Amino acid sequence: MVTVSTGSQGDEGPRYYPSGPSTGQYPQYPQNPYPQGTSPAGAPQGDQHPAGQYTGGQYAYSPYAQAPTPSADEPRRARRPATMAGALVLLVLSALPFLVFGVLGLFVPISQDMFPPELGLDAMLTQYNVSFDQFLQAVRLLLALVAVLALVYIGLAVAAFAGKAWGRVAVTVLTVLFCGFLLLNLGGGASSLIILAPVVLAVAGVVLMFVRPSAAWFAGLR
Questions:
Q1: Is the Cα torsion angle 182, 184, 185, 187 positive or negative in sign?
Q2: Which residues lie across from 16 on neighbouring strands?
Q3: pLDDT in tens, 103-157
Q4: How far is CA 139 from CA 50, 106, 160, 180, in A?
Q5: pTM of the full predicted structure?
């Protein structure tokens, strides 16, 4: 039995393939005319990024590709409660007067006439054999220390607001020391109200960092 195959245009004529037992040899198929590693469309073959970009080749976007979604096992960062924002505002307000007072004390000219006579500055300077310039240098050094402590206090409050547990502990310790020092040196009259206002703000700010929403937020960050 003979199989007849019609050739394509340009061939000499029909080709005849005799039928019979298989000889184990098969006709050779044409080789891939495209360069190795590419497809007919010109896109490189191989692993494909989920978003449609082939590794080792040019970018090919696929509209059906989906971006990778985060795994459900990944921990989700808890949202910062409003109590932490209130705590930051109160703590900054409590330290702001000391920062401003310390900075102004470093640059504002101070003369001996600015001190009231009832303060007894002249008698004190005579008693300790200290000149006014030496006294003024000591005052400016103390004011610089106050400004630095106020900056440190604000920095610890910001660290606690960012979720740092050590910042919350540190600002709490400083608040206790700060309030204790001010209350021990609290006098009478209008000056006591001026000193008492930062104490109230600082204590309220620390309390807000330990109320239930803030405590749950810090616990979720661990």
A1: positive
A2: 4
A3: 998 888 888 888 888 778 888 888 889 898 999 999 899 999 999 999 999 999 9
A4: 67, 9, 32, 22
A5: 0.62
**Which of 161, 165, 150 is CA-nearest to residue 205?**
161
Eight-state DSSP code of residue 10: T
CB 4 within 8 A of CB 14: yes
Name residue 87's amino acid: A
Q: Residues 6 or more apart from 205 whose CB is under 8 A from it? A: 86, 87, 88, 89, 90, 91, 94, 157, 175
Using a 10 angstrom Cβ sphere, with 0-12 exposed, 13-18 middle and 19 or more buried, the burial of residue 125 is middle
Q: What are phi and psi of 170, to 5 degrees?
A: -65, -45
How is residue 85 written in tokens? 């924002």
Q: How distant is the alpha carbon of residue 209 from its chain centre?
A: 19
In angstroms, the CA 62 to CA 68 distance is: 14
Backbone angles phi, psi at 16, to 5 degrees: -115, 130
How far apart, in whole angstroms, are the C-alpha atoms of residue 96 and residue 201?
Answer: 11
